Amino acid sequence: MDFSFGFTYDSQYFPEQPKELHEKIARTGTHHEKWDLAGRDDLSPEVIAILAQDSDPSIRDSIAMNHLTSASVLASLVSRHPDQIPAASIHENAPATLKDLAPIHWQMDGSIYQYLKDKEATEEESVRFRKERDRLHRQYMNRLKKARQGLSPEEWPDFDTPRTPLLGEVWRTIRPEGDEQPSPYSQEFLRAAAYYWDRWSRSVGSVELP
Fold this sequence. Notes:
This protein is an all-alpha fold. The protein has helices at residues 19-28, 31-38, 45-51, 57-64, 71-80, 85-89, 96-99, 109-118, 123-148, 167-174, 187-204.
């Protein structure tokens, strides 16, 4: 199963493996074995939890984008490794408070759908939110095309990528902050989130969402 910007594939693309082997690979496998394992769609919660604690950030990044990874694992992952915030905050299962920290143009439809459910958004709020998201996306794409003029694809990661508001900022225009719970994150964590999102956006490159 494909997951936005992730490395999760149908298990049919991988050889069948006994589940006991998954745990062994997660604990003692090579980097390549662990990375392949982290992309499978037949992992147990126990194996996912082991991979989420791996010392290699690329393994953690991959498990942060596996569609099976739960909200609790994602929350624990970013609390220990703030560099995983970008990958985790666009995950469909991420807590709404974590999704709030991602630029809205990075959030895919499935993630937005679950976010609105978690917020218990009314139909009116959902419609207003989606219209604002569409408007911001069109604005982003126009600015992106203008910024790319005269640049080769190889130069794209080096230019100042256009920014869009964070998902949480857009939501607060729909439902005033007074009706919401305060952010559970410290100012230090929020600064780290902004820092790692800037780095991650540049390393992954500009995206063109439908």
